[in-house]
Structure formats: C-alpha cells, structure tokens
From TrEMBL:
Primary location: membrane
Protein's name according to its UniProt entry: Glutamate receptor 3.6-like isoform X5
Annotated compartments: Membrane
Gene that encodes it: LOC104791384
SUPFAM superfamilies found in the cross-reference section: Periplasmic binding protein-like I (SSF53822), Periplasmic binding protein-like II (SSF53850)
Residues annotated as domain Ionotropic glutamate receptor C-terminal: 459-750
Cleaved signal peptide residues: 1-18
Organism of this sequence: Camelina sativa
Membrane topology: Multi-pass membrane protein
Keywords: Glycoprotein, Ion channel, Ion transport, Ligand-gated ion channel, Membrane, Receptor, Signal, Transmembrane, Transmembrane helix, Transport
Keyword flag Disulfide bond: no
Superkingdom of this protein's organism: Eukaryota
C-alpha cells in the first residue's frame, strides 16, 4: 500500500509541476508597439480607440488573467523616415507585435525587417493590395484590402453603363497599386481607365490645377479619385473653381473622403459645397449593440468623430489580446534572442546588433491568424490569403450638409440596397442602388462622356469601289456619297448629340478593295469604324462588330436568257416532245384496252378487222373532246373509261393554261437554271473582283478556281455575259443580290 500511494503521488506531481511551469511562463506585462502620426486625421482617432481597447482588455476577467497588456505609442510626426525608424526601436525591446505604420509605402519597408526578426506587423491603414503574405509573411492587414474597394467601384461603373473612367491618384505605392487593381477589375467588366492622372505625393495647388485642366480636356466625365487625406479636399476645391463639379461630371471617391466626413463632421460650408453629388465608399460595419454602446461611449471620450479606422484600431487591439491568450495557452514563451546575422554588425553607430528576434514569433503569428471573434467591425477572421472575411462597403452620396447611404456592396452579392448581414431577415426586391443626386443637383444619370476639346474626329473607312456608285461613290473632289453614306448620316442625326467624323476612302478607285482588309484595319486602329457595302460573313464577325443589316443580302446568279416568241407551231410548245409521245401512246393503249374488254360482247367493236381498228382509233382520240359515240357495256370497260376521261380532263386543262401563257406572256429561256447547273458543267463563271464570292465558290461549292473570271465593273459583267463562253465570256455571274438588282435595273441580257 505504501508503494501504491508513492506512485500515485509521483503521477499527480508531474502534471502539477508542468502546470506550475506554464503558469510561471506568463509575464506580468506584454508590450505592443504602435507607430502612427498622432495629429493626423487617422491618428487622433486611433489613439483614443486603442487606449479604450487596452483599458477594456485589462479590465476583462476572461482574457490574459494576471498579464497586463501594455501598448506603447510613438509619434512619427508626418515623417516617412520616422515611420521606418520607430518600429526598429520597438524591435530593440521586448515587443511581441507592432501596430502600424499608417502608410503602405513605409509598411512595405518595415515588413521586410519584421519578417527577419519574426515580429508580427498589424496595420488597418496600409491597404496596398500588392502586399501579399508570400512576400511579407509577418505582415497582417486588419482592414479590408483595397482590391475589394476597387471591385466595388468597377461594379458601380458597370451598373450605370459607363465604359471609361479617369483615375486621379497619388504617385506612390498606395496610389499606383490601388489604381492598377481598379484597372484589372474594370477590364473584367469590359471597361477601362482612359486616362491615369498621377499627382506627386505632396502636390501643390498649381500641380492640382494643371492636372485637372488635362482631365477636363479628356472625353470621360467619370472621375475616380484615390487620394490622400492631405490633398483630397484641395482637389475638390480646385475642381469647383474650374467648373468641374457641374452637371455631366461624376466623382467617385475611395474611403478617404468618408473618413474625413466621419472624423471632422460637420465640415465647413465651403468644403461641403465643393463635394456635393460625390459618391464615396466606406467600409461597412454592422449596426450591432456592441457598436452602438461604443459609439455612445466615444462621445464621452473625445470630441473627434468616430471613423471606421477607430473601430478597426479597437478590434485590432482585442485581436492581439486574444492571440496572446491563445499563445500562452499553447505553452508559448515571450523570449528574444540575438540575430546571428546582425551580430556581425557589432560596433557600428547604428547599433543594429541590438535588434532582437522574437523566439515565439511563428507560433504567435499562427495564433493571430487563427483568431475568430465578433468585434465592432463585424467578424474578425482571416481567409487563406489573409484577407478579412465578408468584405463589404457602404455606398454614400454627399447631399446637403451630410450624406445619404444609397446602397451597399459585398464581395459575394455585389450591389444592393440592403446590407448583406440583413438580407436574410428582410425581403429583397433586387434593387441595386437608390437614386443619386449628381453634381449640378440633378437626378438624371450622366452620360459619362463628352467629345474632347482637343480630340480627333472619328475616322470612318469607306470602300472606294469602281462599281455600284449608287451604293458608295467617291467623287473626284473627294466628296463621298451613296446609299450607305445616307443611312449612316441619318442614323447619326437620330442621336441627341453631335458626332464629329470624317469619311476616309479606302482603295484607289480603280480596283475593288478587299472589305476583309478594311475590317482588319478597324481592329488595328487605322479606322474607328467602316461604312459601306460590307457583307457580314463569319470571318469578319470575328474581327469587328456589325450593325443590323439594312439591305437584303445573299448570293444570286445572273445569266443571259433567250426570248421565245409566237410562231405557227406555238401550239406544240405547251408540252415537250416526250410529253406528246407519252400522251399519244396513252390514247392508243386505252383504245386497245377498251377494244379487248368490249369486242366480245359489244357489236359496236365487232366486224371486219379494218372496221374494228378504225373504231378503236376513233374512240380513243374522240375522248379527248368527250365526243365518243360508242357505248361500253362491260363493267371493267366503264371503269377504265371513267379513269381515262379524268386523265383527259387534266391534260386538257394543263394544255389550255400553258398555251394561254405562251400566247399572252413573253417567255424567257436559259440553260442556266441555278448554282447547281454551274456546279455540274465546266463553263467559266464571273465574280466581282476583290469580293468574298471567289472564296465561297472555291471552298464551299468546290468549283475549280480555273473556271472563275474576275470582273471589275458592271460594264465588264455586260460584255462577258453577252459574249458567252464561246467568245471568251462567261456563262453566268455570281454576285450579291443588291449589286445584281442594280445591274439589271438598266440592262437586259439576252442571247
């Protein structure tokens, strides 16, 4: 019993000793660094928010227990160099994570160092979409990626039917990469950025004025502004002075504008007047009870307005606190060691050897990425590519002294007037956005473009043919007329705006140019469009879009004909010789059948052989006029006679109708009955030079190209058809219906 009791004491002592060791591994305080500009638009909000979050974490009995969370904030004072150096100071001390920097440009530099020292960097303001976890494994974005914001803008552009936008942005990593993402998202909607207008990171009013003048001279009136908090409002002030906040313009701002409105509300009257009608985006945060309580508490903490950056800052601190708790529960230990690579730099004035590696950095990073909690901004959970789940934005319209929410955008559901988190509990009508008050105080959706003041006229290619001047004709003085040009001009006159264009002749006027080549030149940008007798075929539809056809199309065959006039023998023409022989033979056969059936019992068909032959012959042919006198007595004879009389009636009617037509209507005859006749014989065939007809005859109808004769003009058509195959001409001409109708309108080809 003593030995059993001793073994039990040893077994229970081992886990107790392990628990004591784990508990002792928890430090009394955990340090978190924060790097931002205190007096910036974001800084004065996030400072208050993070202080409130640390207070709530340390007061909560459900997290960290005996460990105190301590956040150390350093002011970078609007200085990019300080934004890089201050995080390095934190890495000299025992800091397990750093919140910041504010800007994507400096965050990219600091993230390289953090990767080497295994210290997680969390930022809710560095939203550069190109900062991938593969390149920066220790950089974690705790706000939505700009990629989703640009996708929302692309959906708005597509929703209103616009096709081109102008992008204004700061010429830094944040601006360039954000606009690059916008271009990719627009391309998915078959839209594009027509003009990328970049401003220096710290632009002067003169820089902004020069840029907006160039924008005003462009065609697109859809302007997306991905600006900085520093110069964004100045740009709108200049645009107001230039008359660019008037009817016809559309301004779409990323979330920088909504942040200014939320933080500095109410804005000065002049500022509000400068942004009337602007559409702005704002990260969507659910209107939960937790958020409502925090908003009420915020009013007692500061006079500064609460923006979404404050909410993300609060949630980021709580996310780190939960990750630290998980890190300790997994047995993590806060310890730091020297970097062997940096140890070689001992003795330098920069003291880079003082930078320490967080030994538990990888485990702590995993704990951060595994956090799944509900915060003020909604669900805080990371996807495999380290983006927050369920990205969603509010679509705002600046009106009067504030704004109105006209809709919402989510990554999975697109645009809607109902938030994604509320759509399951409400009836959804399918409406995308509410009505918008656009610049100029109008509710009519702007067209989105105008003709550029310094733009060029549309170059319209017109085939310069030698034939069919009624369709398209290029005069000696350069004037281009014709039916196709008249249709094009009439269509333009129906538009509610003018379209400047110039007609450019394609071809030398002596040879018919290739329409397929003209269509190809449209795709290469030589011409903007084509007008003329351009047939829609499969090959051309793969290169360009066509209007609905306005002329009946199709290939037809024209061949010479021979007139059949009246003559003394015209009564024989209703039937062919074969038909006459068959008819005569039928009369004789029927007469013979009736004689066989009647001569044994009917005295009228009896007598000498000569008399019987004459009677039979007379009987059969007299039925043609229904004047036969002999009667039939047998049943079979009567049946045969009834059938024959019906056949005779049909023959009489057909003959009478055909003879009447011959004597009253001009008859035309041609050996060419259609394309099948041309395929069967070996006569030469004419076709329009430079037309697709040649390829169709060769490849589709398998007519040998040696039989094809190219013809350039109606005069050549006429001569070749009159000469015929015997004199070096052609048996027929294959061409499009419209040209053949024009050709036959003033010509009659007879052989």
């Amino acid at each position: 019993m003593k030995w059993v009791l001793l073994m039990l004491i040893i077994c229970y002592a081992v886990p107790l000793h392990g628990l004591t060791k784990v508990a002792s591994a928890r430090p009394k305080a955990v340090n978190i660094g924060a790097v931002f500009t205190f007096n910036s638009l974001i800084g004065k909000v996030i400072k208050v928010a993070m202080d409130a979050a640390v207070e709530d974490v340390n007061a909560s009995p459900s997290i960290l227990n005996t460990t105190t969370l301590r956040i150390i904030m350093h002011d970078t004072k609007f200085n990019g160099f300080m934004s890089i150096m201050e995080p390095l100071h934190f890495m000299e001390s025992e800091t397990v994570a750093i919140i910041g920097p504010q800007r994507s440009t400096t965050a990219r530099v600091v993230a390289h160092v953090a990767t080497e020292l295994k210290v997680p960097i969390l930022s809710f303001s560095a939203t550069d979409p190109t900062m991938s976890p593969l390149q920066f494994p220790f950089f974690i974005r705790t706000a939505h990626n700009d990629l989703f914001q640009m996708a929302a803008i692309a959906d708005i552009v597509q929703f209103y039917g616009w096709r081109e936008v102008v992008a204004i942005y700061g010429d830094d990593d944040y601006g360039r990469n954000g606009i690059a993402s916008l271009g990719d998202r627009l391309a998915e909607k078959r839209c594009r950025i027509s003009y990328k207008a970049a401003l220096p990171p710290g632009p002067t009013r003169e820089n902004i004025t020069d840029l907006l003048i160039k924008v005003a001279l462009s065609e697109s009136r859809i302007i997306v502004i991905h600006a900085s908090f520093i110069w964004g409002l100045e740009l709108f002030n200049v645009a107001q002075n230039l008359g660019m906040m008037s009817t016809g313009y559309v301004w779409i701002a990323t979330n920088w504008l909504s942040t200014i409105i939320d933080t500095d509300s109410p804005l000065p009257l002049d500022t509000i007047n400068n942004i009337q009608g602007v559409i702005a985006l704002r990260p969507h945060t659910p209107n939960s009870i937790m958020k409502q309580n925090f908003v009420q508490r915020w009013r007692n903490l500061t006079r500064v307005g609460l923006s979404t950056y404050g909410l993300y800052a609060y949630d980021t601190v709580w996310l780190l606190a939960q990750a630290i708790e998980d890190f300790f529960q997994k047995g993590g230990n806060v310890s730091f060691s020297k970097n062997p690579i940096l140890s070689e730099l001992v003795g330098g004035n920069l003291h880079l050897d003082a930078l320490k590696v967080f030994d538990g950095g990888k485990m702590f990073l995993e704990s951060i990425l595994q956090v799944d909690r509900i915060g003020l901004t909604g669900r805080m959970k990371f996807t495999r590519d380290r983006n927050l789940v369920n990205p969603e934005f509010d679509v705002l319209n600046v009106i009067g002294t504030g704004y109105r929410t006209i809709g919402y955008w989510s990554n999975h559901l697109g645009l809607s007037v109902v938030p994604a988190d509320e759509r399951q509990n409400t009836s959804f009508s399918g409406q995308k956005l509410h009505s918008v008050v656009w610049p100029g105080q109008t509710t009519k959706v702007p067209r989105g473009w105008v003709f550029s003041n310094n733009g060029r006229h549309l170059r319209i290619g017109v085939p310069n043919r030698y034939r069919s001047e009624e369709v398209v004709s290029v005069k000696s003085n350069g004037m281009i007329t014709g039916f196709c040009v008249d249709v094009f001009t009439a269509a333009l006159n129906l538009l509610p705006y003018a379209v400047p264009f110039e007609l450019v002749a394609f071809g030398n006027g002596h040879d018919n140019p290739s329409n397929s080549e003209l269509v190809r030149l449209i795709t290469t940008g030589v011409y903007d469009a084509g007008v003329g007798d351009i047939t829609i075929i499969t090959e051309r539809t793969k290169m360009a879009d066509f209007t609905q056809p306005y002329v009946e199309s199709g290939l037809v065959v024209v061949a010479p004909v021979r007139k059949l006039g009246s003559s003394a023998m015209a009564f024989l023409r209703p039937f062919t010789p074969q038909m006459w022989l068959i008819t005569a033979a039928s009369f004789l056969i029927v007469g013979a059948v009736i004689w066989c059936l009647e001569h044994k019992h009917n005295d009228e068909f009896r007598g000498p052989p000569c008399r019987q032959f004459i009677t039979t012959f007379w009987f059969s042919f007299s039925t043609l006029f229904f004047s036969h006198r002999e009667t039939t007595t047998s049943s079979l004879g009567r049946i045969v006679l009834i059938i024959w009389l019906f056949v005779v009636l049909i023959i009489n009617s057909s003959y009478t109708a055909s003879l009447t037509s011959i004597l009253t209507v001009h008859q035309l005859s041609s050996p060419i009955k259609g394309i099948e006749t041309l395929q069967a014989n070996h006569d030469p065939i004419g076709y329009p030079k430079g037309s697709f007809v040649r390829d169709y005859l060769v490849h589709e109808l398998s007519i040998h190209e040696s039989r094809l004769v190219p013809l350039s003009s109606p005069e050549e058509y006429d001569k070749a058809l009159r000469d015929g195959p015997g004199k070096g001409g052609v048996a027929a001409v294959v061409d499009e219906r419209a040209y053949i109708e024009l050709f036959l309108s003033n010509r009659c080809i007879s052989a």
